[in-house]
Write a structure and sequence with these properties.
Layout: E1 7-12, E2 30-31, E3 34-35, H1 36-47, E4 52-57, H2 62-71, E5 79-82, H3 87-95, E6 103-108, H4 116-129, E7 132-138, E8 143-147, E9 150-154, E10 160-162, E11 166-169, H5 170-176, H6 188-194, E12 199-203, H7 214-229
Parallel strand pairs: 1-4, 1-6, 4-5, 7-12
Antiparallel strand pairs: 2-3, 6-11, 7-10, 8-9
Helix pairs in contact: 1-4
């Protein structure tokens, strides 16, 4: 008998994200009539309602989140854990609730438009190939590399823009995170790669934007209106 796959998602919403403006961390700001974090959780539930969802919140924000869930009657089951000093520490806190036999996706709360297709592809590759998998898109801008003398042209064909979700066999990722924080740990793949985990790239999605600034909030509102008219 083939054992049932065990999937989990850690949604990282542990930062304050004040660059969007206002007093609320960006994950609680409303887009399309409800907080952005709810859109992100919904995306994983829509992929498969059986996926276990862990949400990493900033320290002390659980009461506000519970208030928002009550206000918007948001009932998708999820578990809350508090974040840490950096994204690395927040993910590590989330991984403490994940069992070794699971396949886990780590996803930024500020990417509310991730599709079921991308989630499923990341889970499947990680499970079938027993490796880490990260979605990437092409760099379309001209880019330059900083040097001691100033800067120089860089070949954009050699560059990729990294997105989330990033998926891994949980046992491997938990072992990788059993280390001290380094400034180069900007995402989960950077932690995994240093520990020797094989990383496979898969095609990301242009629509899988990361909401970081006030302009991104406006863009997200526009995109939701576009989706509602399709």
């Amino acid at each position: 008998m083939i054992p049932e796959r065990k999937y989990s998602a850690i949604i990282v919403a542990g930062g304050k994200g004040y660059r969007v403006g206002g007093e609320l961390p960006k994950q609680f700001i409303s887009i399309g009539g409800k907080p952005m974090l709810m859109h992100t959780i919904q995306a994983f539930y829509d992929y498969d309602y059986r996926v276990r969802i862990i949400v990493v919140l900033p320290e002390g924000y659980k009461p506000l989140w519970q208030q928002l869930c009550d206000e918007y009657r948001f009932a998708i089951n999820h578990t809350i854990v508090y974040g840490g000093e950096t994204r690395f520490h927040s993910v590590k806190n989330g991984l403490s609730l994940i069992s070794d036999e699971e396949t886990v996706c780590i996803h930024d709360a500020a990417r509310p438009f991730v599709t079921s297709g991308l989630i499923g592809r990341c889970f499947d590759i990680a499970f079938n190939d027993n490796c880490g998998v990260i979605p990437v898109i092409d760099e379309v801008n001209s880019v330059r590399r900083l040097t001691e003398k100033g800067s120089e042209i860089a070949n954009r064909e050699e560059l990729k823009i990294v997105q989330t979700p990033q998926a891994f066999p949980a046992e491997q990722l938990k072992a990788a995170y059993n280390t001290h924080y380094l400034p180069v740990f900007t995402d989960d793949a950077s932690v995994a790669e240093i520990s020797g985990i094989k990383i496979i790239l898969t095609e990301g999605e242009e629509s899988n934007i990361k909401v970081t600034t006030a302009f991104d909030i406006e863009l997200a509102e526009f995109y939701l209106k576009y989706l509602s008219k399709r």
